[in-house]
Amino acid sequence: MAQVFGHQTKGGSEHSSAQKPRVLFSRRAFFRATCATAASSALACIAVSAGGCKHRAVDDPQSPVVVDDAQAEYIIDPQTNESKYSAVDFELKQTGNWELPLGNMLYPSDGVWIAATTAGTSATPAIKASAFNTKTGQLVQVLEQPYGKSSTNCIIYDVRTSDKVFVWLEFDIVTRDWTLYASAFADGKLHGQVSELWKADADYLPAQFCVHENYVVWQVSPSPQGSRAKENSYCYLWKLGDDKAASVVESLSRFACAPTFSKDLVVIVPKVKTKSAPLYVIRVYSLTDSMEKQQDELFLPPSVAPLYATYINSLFAFSIEANHQSGGLLGKMGTYIGSRDKGFVVVPREPSAPVVGNNNTFIVRSKASYFVVDTAQKSYSILAASNRCTDYGEYPACTGEQNSVVTYATIKDKTTGYPKNVLVRQFRV
Fold first, then answer.
1. Are strands 265-268 and 260-262 parallel, antiparallel or unpaired?
2. 192, 184 in Cβ contact below 8 A?
3. Which domain of life is it from (predicted)?
4. Which of 139, 175, 240, 264 could lock 214 by a disulfide, CB 3.0 to 4.6 Å apart?
5. Comma-separated ranges of CATH 2.130.10.120 domains in the chain
6. Tens digit of pLDDT for each residue in 155-165?
7. Domain range 101-255, CATH architecture
Protein backbone atom coordinates (compact mmCIF):
# COMPACT_ATOMS: atom_id res chain seq x y z
CA MET A 1 0.00 0.00 0.00
CA ALA A 2 1.41 3.35 -1.01
CA GLN A 3 2.12 6.16 1.40
CA VAL A 4 0.27 9.44 0.92
CA PHE A 5 0.59 12.30 3.43
CA GLY A 6 1.64 10.00 6.24
CA HIS A 7 -1.11 7.38 5.73
CA GLN A 8 -1.68 4.36 3.52
CA THR A 9 -4.08 4.31 0.60
CA LYS A 10 -4.97 1.51 -1.74
CA GLY A 11 -4.01 1.85 -5.35
CA GLY A 12 -2.24 4.58 -7.26
CA SER A 13 1.29 5.85 -7.02
CA GLU A 14 2.54 8.34 -4.51
CA HIS A 15 2.95 10.99 -7.16
CA SER A 16 -0.41 10.57 -8.83
CA SER A 17 -2.08 10.99 -5.44
CA ALA A 18 0.11 13.76 -4.05
CA GLN A 19 -1.41 16.70 -5.89
CA LYS A 20 -3.40 18.09 -2.95
CA PRO A 21 -0.94 18.49 -0.10
CA ARG A 22 -2.37 18.74 3.38
CA VAL A 23 -1.39 17.90 6.94
CA LEU A 24 -3.13 14.88 8.42
CA PHE A 25 -3.02 13.58 11.95
CA SER A 26 -2.43 10.08 13.19
CA ARG A 27 -5.25 7.61 13.54
CA ARG A 28 -3.85 7.02 16.99
CA ALA A 29 -4.23 9.49 19.85
CA PHE A 30 -3.92 13.14 18.92
CA PHE A 31 -1.86 13.79 22.01
CA ARG A 32 0.91 11.58 23.36
CA ALA A 33 3.54 11.78 26.03
CA THR A 34 7.01 11.70 24.59
CA CYS A 35 9.50 9.59 26.50
CA ALA A 36 12.04 12.39 26.58
CA THR A 37 9.82 15.19 27.89
CA ALA A 38 6.86 13.38 29.43
CA ALA A 39 4.75 16.22 28.00
CA SER A 40 1.78 15.93 25.64
CA SER A 41 2.41 16.99 22.03
CA ALA A 42 0.52 16.69 18.75
CA LEU A 43 1.76 14.19 16.20
CA ALA A 44 1.96 15.87 12.79
CA CYS A 45 1.87 13.73 9.65
CA ILE A 46 4.02 15.40 7.02
CA ALA A 47 2.50 16.07 3.60
CA VAL A 48 4.31 15.80 0.26
CA SER A 49 4.47 19.03 -1.72
CA ALA A 50 2.60 19.25 -5.01
CA GLY A 51 4.52 19.50 -8.26
CA GLY A 52 5.96 16.01 -8.58
CA CYS A 53 9.52 14.78 -8.24
CA LYS A 54 12.32 17.26 -8.96
CA HIS A 55 14.68 14.74 -10.58
CA ARG A 56 13.02 11.97 -12.59
CA ALA A 57 14.62 8.62 -13.43
CA VAL A 58 15.35 9.61 -17.05
CA ASP A 59 18.62 11.00 -18.36
CA ASP A 60 20.81 11.32 -21.43
CA PRO A 61 24.29 11.02 -19.93
CA GLN A 62 27.73 10.84 -21.32
CA SER A 63 29.09 7.33 -21.68
CA PRO A 64 29.32 5.51 -18.34
CA VAL A 65 32.74 5.52 -16.72
CA VAL A 66 34.68 2.42 -17.77
CA VAL A 67 38.39 2.48 -16.94
CA ASP A 68 41.04 -0.22 -17.01
CA ASP A 69 43.69 -1.13 -14.45
CA ALA A 70 46.28 1.11 -16.11
CA GLN A 71 44.16 4.18 -15.35
CA ALA A 72 44.04 3.53 -11.60
CA GLU A 73 46.41 3.96 -8.68
CA TYR A 74 46.32 0.89 -6.46
CA ILE A 75 47.14 1.24 -2.77
CA ILE A 76 48.11 -2.42 -2.81
CA ASP A 77 48.56 -4.57 -5.91
CA PRO A 78 45.58 -6.97 -5.97
CA GLN A 79 47.64 -9.66 -7.70
CA THR A 80 50.88 -9.64 -5.68
CA ASN A 81 49.68 -7.92 -2.48
CA GLU A 82 52.67 -5.58 -2.83
CA SER A 83 52.24 -2.04 -1.51
CA LYS A 84 52.06 0.57 -4.26
CA TYR A 85 51.69 3.46 -1.83
CA SER A 86 54.24 4.00 0.93
CA ALA A 87 53.32 2.32 4.21
CA VAL A 88 53.82 4.79 7.08
CA ASP A 89 53.15 4.87 10.82
CA PHE A 90 49.64 5.73 11.96
CA GLU A 91 49.54 9.47 12.68
CA LEU A 92 45.95 10.44 13.48
CA LYS A 93 45.68 11.84 16.99
CA GLN A 94 43.23 10.08 19.30
CA THR A 95 41.04 12.66 21.04
CA GLY A 96 38.53 10.45 22.83
CA ASN A 97 38.18 7.02 24.45
CA TRP A 98 35.00 5.92 26.24
CA GLU A 99 33.45 2.71 27.52
CA LEU A 100 29.71 2.09 27.10
CA PRO A 101 27.57 -0.77 28.42
CA LEU A 102 27.29 -3.90 26.33
CA GLY A 103 24.44 -3.83 23.81
CA ASN A 104 24.93 -0.32 22.41
CA MET A 105 25.27 0.27 18.67
CA LEU A 106 26.19 3.66 17.19
CA TYR A 107 24.90 4.95 13.85
CA PRO A 108 26.38 7.45 11.37
CA SER A 109 25.36 10.85 12.67
CA ASP A 110 26.20 14.50 12.19
CA GLY A 111 27.50 16.71 14.98
CA VAL A 112 28.46 16.33 18.63
CA TRP A 113 25.65 13.85 19.28
CA ILE A 114 25.66 10.34 17.81
CA ALA A 115 22.50 8.25 17.62
CA ALA A 116 22.55 4.81 19.22
CA THR A 117 20.32 1.85 19.93
CA THR A 118 20.53 0.30 23.37
CA ALA A 119 19.46 -3.22 24.28
CA GLY A 120 16.54 -3.20 26.70
CA THR A 121 16.70 -4.90 30.07
CA SER A 122 13.62 -6.95 29.16
CA ALA A 123 11.86 -8.22 26.04
CA THR A 124 9.55 -5.20 26.07
CA PRO A 125 11.05 -2.98 24.94
CA ALA A 126 13.82 -5.00 23.31
CA ILE A 127 15.56 -1.89 21.96
CA LYS A 128 15.72 1.71 23.17
CA ALA A 129 16.85 4.84 21.33
CA SER A 130 19.81 6.70 22.84
CA ALA A 131 22.32 9.42 21.99
CA PHE A 132 26.03 9.63 22.77
CA ASN A 133 27.77 12.97 23.34
CA THR A 134 31.32 13.04 21.94
CA LYS A 135 32.28 16.04 24.07
CA THR A 136 31.24 14.69 27.46
CA GLY A 137 31.19 10.93 26.83
CA GLN A 138 27.63 10.85 28.16
CA LEU A 139 25.10 8.31 26.87
CA VAL A 140 21.50 9.46 27.36
CA GLN A 141 18.23 7.66 26.75
CA VAL A 142 16.05 9.43 24.19
CA LEU A 143 13.17 6.95 23.77
CA GLU A 144 12.46 4.33 26.39
CA GLN A 145 10.01 2.50 24.13
CA PRO A 146 8.55 2.86 20.62
CA TYR A 147 6.69 6.17 20.34
CA GLY A 148 3.86 4.78 18.23
CA LYS A 149 3.76 1.47 20.06
CA SER A 150 0.66 -0.50 19.06
CA SER A 151 1.86 -4.00 19.94
CA THR A 152 4.69 -5.83 21.65
CA ASN A 153 6.01 -6.71 18.19
CA CYS A 154 7.10 -3.13 17.48
CA ILE A 155 10.79 -2.23 17.88
CA ILE A 156 12.99 0.82 17.35
CA TYR A 157 14.70 -0.40 14.20
CA ASP A 158 17.00 2.43 13.09
CA VAL A 159 18.10 5.85 14.37
CA ARG A 160 20.02 8.92 13.18
CA THR A 161 20.63 12.32 14.71
CA SER A 162 22.25 15.71 14.31
CA ASP A 163 22.56 18.29 17.06
CA LYS A 164 19.14 19.64 16.01
CA VAL A 165 16.89 16.79 14.92
CA PHE A 166 16.49 13.14 15.99
CA VAL A 167 14.99 10.61 13.55
CA TRP A 168 13.97 7.02 14.19
CA LEU A 169 12.18 4.19 12.41
CA GLU A 170 9.80 1.85 14.22
CA PHE A 171 9.25 -1.63 12.75
CA ASP A 172 6.71 -4.37 13.46
CA ILE A 173 8.65 -7.63 13.30
CA VAL A 174 5.48 -9.65 12.59
CA THR A 175 3.55 -7.56 10.05
CA ARG A 176 6.65 -5.70 8.76
CA ASP A 177 4.76 -2.40 8.91
CA TRP A 178 7.00 0.57 9.68
CA THR A 179 6.83 4.27 10.53
CA LEU A 180 9.48 7.00 10.29
CA TYR A 181 9.42 9.72 12.97
CA ALA A 182 11.38 12.93 13.59
CA SER A 183 11.57 15.49 16.37
CA ALA A 184 13.56 18.54 17.36
CA PHE A 185 16.51 17.50 19.53
CA ALA A 186 18.69 19.41 21.99
CA ASP A 187 20.59 18.63 25.19
CA GLY A 188 19.96 14.92 24.72
CA LYS A 189 16.15 15.28 24.67
CA LEU A 190 13.30 15.47 22.18
CA HIS A 191 11.55 18.84 22.10
CA GLY A 192 8.19 20.00 20.80
CA GLN A 193 6.10 18.19 18.25
CA VAL A 194 6.89 14.74 16.91
CA SER A 195 6.45 14.49 13.12
CA GLU A 196 5.41 11.33 11.33
CA LEU A 197 7.41 11.50 8.10
CA TRP A 198 6.22 8.27 6.50
CA LYS A 199 4.51 4.96 7.17
CA ALA A 200 4.10 1.86 5.02
CA ASP A 201 3.41 -1.85 5.12
CA ALA A 202 5.41 -4.93 4.09
CA ASP A 203 5.21 -4.00 0.40
CA TYR A 204 7.92 -1.41 1.08
CA LEU A 205 11.38 -1.83 2.56
CA PRO A 206 12.12 0.10 5.77
CA ALA A 207 13.20 3.59 4.75
CA GLN A 208 16.90 4.37 4.47
CA PHE A 209 17.62 7.84 5.83
CA CYS A 210 20.26 10.34 6.94
CA VAL A 211 20.28 13.58 8.93
CA HIS A 212 22.25 16.83 8.68
CA GLU A 213 21.54 19.82 10.93
CA ASN A 214 17.81 20.61 10.33
CA TYR A 215 17.41 18.35 7.29
CA VAL A 216 16.23 14.77 6.87
CA VAL A 217 16.55 12.78 3.63
CA TRP A 218 14.90 9.38 3.25
CA GLN A 219 14.32 6.82 0.51
CA VAL A 220 11.16 4.73 0.05
CA SER A 221 11.64 1.60 -2.07
CA PRO A 222 9.34 -1.33 -2.89
CA SER A 223 10.16 -4.71 -1.40
CA PRO A 224 11.37 -7.21 -4.04
CA GLN A 225 9.03 -9.78 -2.43
CA GLY A 226 6.01 -7.46 -2.24
CA SER A 227 3.12 -6.72 -4.57
CA ARG A 228 4.71 -3.36 -5.51
CA ALA A 229 8.07 -4.85 -6.51
CA LYS A 230 8.03 -3.28 -9.99
CA GLU A 231 7.28 0.24 -8.81
CA ASN A 232 9.86 3.02 -8.81
CA SER A 233 11.48 4.37 -5.65
CA TYR A 234 11.51 7.95 -4.38
CA CYS A 235 13.74 10.08 -2.20
CA TYR A 236 12.31 12.85 0.00
CA LEU A 237 13.69 15.97 1.69
CA TRP A 238 12.20 17.54 4.82
CA LYS A 239 13.35 20.43 6.97
CA LEU A 240 12.54 20.56 10.67
CA GLY A 241 9.51 22.77 11.23
CA ASP A 242 8.06 22.38 7.73
CA ASP A 243 4.62 20.82 7.26
CA LYS A 244 5.56 19.44 3.84
CA ALA A 245 8.33 17.26 2.43
CA ALA A 246 9.62 17.50 -1.14
CA SER A 247 9.95 14.55 -3.50
CA VAL A 248 13.43 15.12 -4.88
CA VAL A 249 14.82 12.03 -6.66
CA GLU A 250 13.19 9.14 -8.51
CA SER A 251 14.86 5.77 -9.15
CA LEU A 252 13.91 2.90 -11.40
CA SER A 253 13.31 -0.05 -9.07
CA ARG A 254 15.39 0.47 -5.89
CA PHE A 255 18.21 2.86 -5.01
CA ALA A 256 21.64 1.21 -4.95
CA CYS A 257 22.46 2.23 -1.36
CA ALA A 258 21.43 4.47 1.50
CA PRO A 259 21.66 8.27 1.15
CA THR A 260 24.57 10.01 2.86
CA PHE A 261 25.39 13.55 3.92
CA SER A 262 28.85 15.04 3.50
CA LYS A 263 28.86 18.50 5.07
CA ASP A 264 25.95 20.25 3.31
CA LEU A 265 26.00 17.89 0.32
CA VAL A 266 23.70 14.91 -0.17
CA VAL A 267 24.74 11.79 -2.12
CA ILE A 268 22.00 9.68 -3.74
CA VAL A 269 22.44 6.66 -6.06
CA PRO A 270 19.33 6.14 -8.23
CA LYS A 271 18.96 3.93 -11.28
CA VAL A 272 17.97 6.01 -14.30
CA LYS A 273 16.77 5.26 -17.81
CA THR A 274 19.25 6.13 -20.56
CA LYS A 275 19.33 5.54 -24.31
CA SER A 276 21.62 2.55 -23.92
CA ALA A 277 20.42 0.85 -20.72
CA PRO A 278 19.30 1.58 -17.15
CA LEU A 279 22.36 2.72 -15.19
CA TYR A 280 23.16 3.55 -11.59
CA VAL A 281 24.46 7.08 -11.15
CA ILE A 282 26.08 8.60 -8.05
CA ARG A 283 24.61 12.08 -7.78
CA VAL A 284 25.57 14.94 -5.51
CA TYR A 285 23.10 17.64 -4.45
CA SER A 286 23.39 20.65 -2.17
CA LEU A 287 21.13 21.60 0.71
CA THR A 288 21.72 25.29 0.00
CA ASP A 289 19.18 25.10 -2.84
CA SER A 290 17.09 22.25 -1.36
CA MET A 291 18.55 19.75 -3.85
CA GLU A 292 17.30 21.68 -6.88
CA LYS A 293 20.46 21.27 -8.97
CA GLN A 294 23.07 18.56 -9.31
CA GLN A 295 26.55 19.47 -8.12
CA ASP A 296 28.27 16.43 -9.63
CA GLU A 297 27.49 12.99 -10.99
CA LEU A 298 29.21 9.75 -11.93
CA PHE A 299 27.55 7.11 -14.11
CA LEU A 300 28.63 3.54 -13.39
CA PRO A 301 28.93 0.74 -15.95
CA PRO A 302 25.85 -1.39 -16.71
CA SER A 303 24.83 -3.78 -13.89
CA VAL A 304 27.36 -2.22 -11.45
CA ALA A 305 25.87 -0.85 -8.22
CA PRO A 306 27.81 0.62 -5.28
CA LEU A 307 27.42 -0.77 -1.78
CA TYR A 308 28.25 2.64 -0.27
CA ALA A 309 28.80 6.08 -1.78
CA THR A 310 29.79 9.52 -0.52
CA TYR A 311 31.62 12.65 -1.69
CA ILE A 312 34.75 14.09 -0.05
CA ASN A 313 36.88 17.04 -1.19
CA SER A 314 35.17 17.09 -4.63
CA LEU A 315 35.93 13.39 -5.14
CA PHE A 316 33.59 10.42 -5.23
CA ALA A 317 34.30 7.74 -2.63
CA PHE A 318 32.34 4.55 -3.24
CA SER A 319 32.58 0.80 -2.79
CA ILE A 320 31.83 -2.16 -5.06
CA GLU A 321 31.15 -5.35 -3.09
CA ALA A 322 31.54 -7.98 -5.82
CA ASN A 323 33.42 -8.67 -9.04
CA HIS A 324 31.50 -8.23 -12.28
CA GLN A 325 32.32 -9.77 -15.65
CA SER A 326 31.95 -6.38 -17.32
CA GLY A 327 32.46 -2.74 -16.42
CA GLY A 328 36.25 -2.61 -16.50
CA LEU A 329 37.99 -1.56 -13.30
CA LEU A 330 34.80 -0.21 -11.71
CA GLY A 331 33.27 -3.66 -12.05
CA LYS A 332 35.77 -5.10 -9.57
CA MET A 333 35.46 -5.39 -5.81
CA GLY A 334 37.07 -2.59 -3.83
CA THR A 335 36.79 1.03 -2.71
CA TYR A 336 37.30 3.81 -5.26
CA ILE A 337 38.28 7.43 -4.63
CA GLY A 338 38.33 9.85 -7.55
CA SER A 339 36.37 11.19 -10.50
CA ARG A 340 35.93 10.74 -14.22
CA ASP A 341 38.53 13.41 -15.01
CA LYS A 342 41.07 12.77 -12.23
CA GLY A 343 41.10 8.98 -12.28
CA PHE A 344 40.74 6.70 -9.27
CA VAL A 345 42.71 5.55 -6.27
CA VAL A 346 41.75 1.97 -5.40
CA VAL A 347 41.78 0.03 -2.14
CA PRO A 348 41.35 -3.53 -3.48
CA ARG A 349 39.82 -5.02 -0.36
CA GLU A 350 36.30 -6.15 0.47
CA PRO A 351 34.40 -3.04 1.64
CA SER A 352 32.41 -3.04 4.86
CA ALA A 353 31.51 0.60 5.67
CA PRO A 354 31.19 4.02 4.01
CA VAL A 355 34.34 6.10 3.58
CA VAL A 356 35.15 8.92 6.02
CA GLY A 357 37.71 11.62 5.29
CA ASN A 358 38.87 15.21 5.16
CA ASN A 359 40.99 17.05 2.60
CA ASN A 360 43.34 14.40 1.14
CA THR A 361 42.88 11.84 3.93
CA PHE A 362 40.44 8.97 3.38
CA ILE A 363 39.61 6.31 5.97
CA VAL A 364 38.50 3.02 4.40
CA ARG A 365 37.26 0.12 6.52
CA SER A 366 38.29 -3.38 5.48
CA LYS A 367 37.20 -6.27 7.68
CA ALA A 368 38.18 -5.37 11.24
CA SER A 369 40.63 -2.50 10.64
CA TYR A 370 41.03 0.62 8.49
CA PHE A 371 43.29 1.91 5.75
CA VAL A 372 44.11 5.60 6.31
CA VAL A 373 45.01 6.81 2.82
CA ASP A 374 46.77 10.09 2.03
CA THR A 375 46.26 10.65 -1.70
CA ALA A 376 48.51 13.74 -1.75
CA GLN A 377 51.51 11.97 -0.19
CA LYS A 378 50.64 8.62 -1.82
CA SER A 379 50.96 6.84 1.49
CA TYR A 380 48.80 4.80 3.81
CA SER A 381 48.76 3.66 7.42
CA ILE A 382 46.64 1.18 9.36
CA LEU A 383 44.17 2.05 12.10
CA ALA A 384 44.01 -1.28 13.89
CA ALA A 385 40.85 -2.45 15.60
CA SER A 386 40.71 -2.19 19.38
CA ASN A 387 42.40 -4.96 21.34
CA ARG A 388 40.11 -7.91 22.17
CA CYS A 389 37.26 -6.67 20.00
CA THR A 390 34.85 -9.26 18.61
CA ASP A 391 35.28 -10.71 15.13
CA TYR A 392 32.94 -8.05 13.75
CA GLY A 393 35.71 -5.53 14.33
CA GLU A 394 35.37 -1.78 14.74
CA TYR A 395 32.79 0.29 12.85
CA PRO A 396 32.64 4.01 12.05
CA ALA A 397 29.84 6.11 13.53
CA CYS A 398 30.18 8.79 10.86
CA THR A 399 30.46 9.08 7.10
CA GLY A 400 31.53 11.53 4.41
CA GLU A 401 33.63 14.64 5.05
CA GLN A 402 34.41 14.99 8.77
CA ASN A 403 36.95 16.75 10.98
CA SER A 404 37.07 13.68 13.20
CA VAL A 405 36.17 10.01 12.94
CA VAL A 406 34.33 8.13 15.68
CA THR A 407 34.50 4.34 15.86
CA TYR A 408 32.99 1.73 18.15
CA ALA A 409 33.58 -1.94 18.87
CA THR A 410 32.35 -4.62 21.25
CA ILE A 411 35.21 -5.68 23.54
CA LYS A 412 35.67 -9.13 25.10
CA ASP A 413 36.64 -9.66 28.73
CA LYS A 414 40.33 -10.59 28.95
CA THR A 415 39.58 -13.32 31.51
CA THR A 416 36.39 -14.99 30.28
CA GLY A 417 36.55 -14.11 26.60
CA TYR A 418 32.88 -13.10 26.62
CA PRO A 419 31.71 -9.68 25.34
CA LYS A 420 32.06 -7.17 28.17
CA ASN A 421 31.42 -3.62 26.95
CA VAL A 422 31.50 -1.26 23.97
CA LEU A 423 34.57 0.91 23.35
CA VAL A 424 34.15 4.22 21.51
CA ARG A 425 37.18 6.01 20.08
CA GLN A 426 37.58 9.37 18.37
CA PHE A 427 40.42 10.53 16.10
CA ARG A 428 41.11 13.93 14.56
CA VAL A 429 41.31 13.78 10.75
1. antiparallel
2. yes
3. Bacteria
4. 240
5. 101-255
6. 999 999 999 99
7. 7 Propeller (2.130)
